[in-house]
């Protein structure tokens, strides 16, 4: 049981390793005007968290930051003038604390970087920065936590500009978490889905567990762009989830249909060796639309939660850890040690009602 008025917080006291995560007892926040106080029940880790912990994140990070951006929990206190939320509501916390609709305006409001994040027992945020989970949802807090980033980003890619339509074809490069979230959303929307991998075991697992329409095993002798063209009878795919950046963009343009869309995300692949292809000319030849997807808004979060609930989707979890300094360090190490198919999550215990 926690001491009255305090809670446990993890902070990065240095940013050269996740081993610098340090546990503190700090004053528990209260819900101010227009705010809700949330008891965190689960946090989902991202590769962004690894970059922040090791000092390789490209954007500003506050000193001694509380890490973590993706969380789900329970509202335990409602501040003055809050409308639409009540104590005991289950919620997902928005990654970007300021963007209600449209594209994010800066990188200054992302949890766990420029502002303190969710790796703590309680967090107080604006009522405009949380989205309600349906009361009758059977999904765990851990499954909902990952919606804050992968769910929002994948939804933004598929619906944030020109919405994907039933019968269209979407190509996902790899079996990583973002592609799997996109695959599940696109499949539920009636799209034809194609996924690629250089790992035959992962490809077999994803094919059996998530049921893409087609699965392409890639190697030096099997060109995935050629295979995608073949699977679409030479027309090309309508949409590509390109997570490889400069290394894969030329092949993505080859695979996409005339007038198709390529969604670009933070590159997780190796750096390009040699000359960069003339992307502008390649895109112009096919009228390709390229769209950089920079996370998403509170509206996107509301929409993807409603879609997941309506279609009873079970978003994948790879491994669960508990909220304890050593366990959280172990969770970071696990995520850094490979390419997990599902989310790596931290779950929290419940400590009862609170008052301020």
List the helices and strands and how they pair.
Blueprint: E1 6-12, E2 21-27, E3 35-44, H1 47-53, E4 70-78, E5 90-93, E6 122-126, E7 130-132, H2 141-145, H3 150-159, E8 169-172, H4 177-188, E9 192-197, H5 200-210, E10 214-217, H6 224-231, E11 237-242, H7 249-255, E12 256-264, H8 279-286, E13 289-292, H9 298-311, E14 317-322, H10 325-336, E15 343-347
Helix pairs in contact: 3-4, 3-9, 6-7
How would you sum up this structure, described in words?
It comes from Penicillium bovifimosum. Residues 11-346 form the Enoyl reductase (ER) domain. InterPro entries: ADH-like_C (IPR013149), ADH-like_N (IPR013154), ER (IPR020843), GroES-like_sf (IPR011032), NAD(P)-bd_dom_sf (IPR036291), Zinc_ADH-like (IPR052711). This protein is an alpha/beta fold. It has 2 domains: 6-149 and 296-347, Quinone Oxidoreductase, Chain A, domain 1 (Alpha-Beta Complex), CATH 3.90.180.10; 152-292, Rossmann fold. 26% of the residues lie in helices and 25% in strands. The chain has 10 helices and 15 strands. It has helices at 47-53, 141-145, 150-159, 177-188, 200-210, 224-231, 249-255, 279-286, 298-311, 325-336, and strands spanning 6-12, 21-27, 35-44, 70-78, 90-93, 122-126, 130-132, 169-172, 192-197, 214-217, 237-242, 256-264, 289-292, 317-322, 343-347. The strands form 3 sheets. Strands 3, 4, 5, 6, 7, 14 and 15 form a 7-stranded mixed beta sheet that branches. Strands 10-9-8-11-12-13 form a 6-stranded parallel beta sheet, with helices on both faces. Strands 1-2 form a two-stranded antiparallel sheet. The chain is globular, with a radius of gyration of 21 Å. 44% of the residues are buried. The mean pLDDT is 93.
């Amino acid at each position: 049981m926690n001491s009255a008025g305090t809670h446990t917080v993890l902070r990065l006291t240095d940013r050269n390793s996740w081993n610098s995560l340090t546990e503190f007892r700090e004053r528990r926040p209260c819900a101010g005007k227009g705010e809700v106080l949330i008891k965190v029940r689960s946090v989902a880790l991202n590769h962004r968290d690894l970059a922040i912990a090791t000092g390789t994140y490209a954007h500003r990070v506050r000193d001694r930051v509380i890490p973590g951006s993706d969380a789900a929990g329970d509202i335990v206190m409602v501040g003055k003038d809050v409308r639409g939320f009540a104590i005991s509501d289950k919620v997902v916390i928005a990654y970007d604390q300021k963007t209600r609709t449209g594209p994010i305006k800066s990188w200054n409001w992302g949890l766990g970087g420029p502002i303190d994040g969710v790796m703590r027992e309680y967090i107080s945020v604006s009522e405009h920065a949380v989205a309600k989970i349906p009361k009758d949802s059977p999904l765990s807090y851990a499954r909902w936590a990952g919606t804050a980033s992968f769910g929002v980003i994948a939804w933004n890619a598929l619906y944030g500009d020109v919405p994907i339509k039933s019968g269209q074809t979407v190509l996902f490069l790899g079996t990583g978490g973002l592609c799997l979230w996109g695959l599940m959303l696109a499949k539920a929307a009636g799209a034809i889905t194609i996924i690629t991998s250089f790992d035959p075991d992962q490809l077999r697992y994803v094919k059996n567990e998530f049921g893409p329409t087609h699965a392409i095993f890639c190697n030096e002798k099997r060109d995935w762009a050629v295979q995608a063209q073949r699977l679409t009878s030479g027309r090309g795919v309508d949409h590509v989830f390109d997570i490889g950046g400069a290394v894969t963009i030329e092949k993505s343009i080859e695979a996409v249909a005339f007038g198709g869309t390529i969604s670009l995300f933070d590159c997780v692949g190796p750096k390009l060796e040699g000359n960069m292809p003339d992307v502008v000319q390649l895109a112009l030849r096919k009228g390709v639309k390229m769209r950089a997807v920079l996370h998403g808004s509170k509206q996107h979060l509301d929409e993807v939660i409603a879609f997941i609930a309506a279609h009873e989707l079970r978003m994948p979890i790879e491994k669960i850890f508990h909220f304890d300094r050593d366990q959280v360090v172990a969770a970071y190490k696990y995520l850094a040690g490979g390419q997990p198919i599902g989310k790596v999550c931290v779950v929290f215990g419940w400590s009862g009602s609170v008052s301020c």
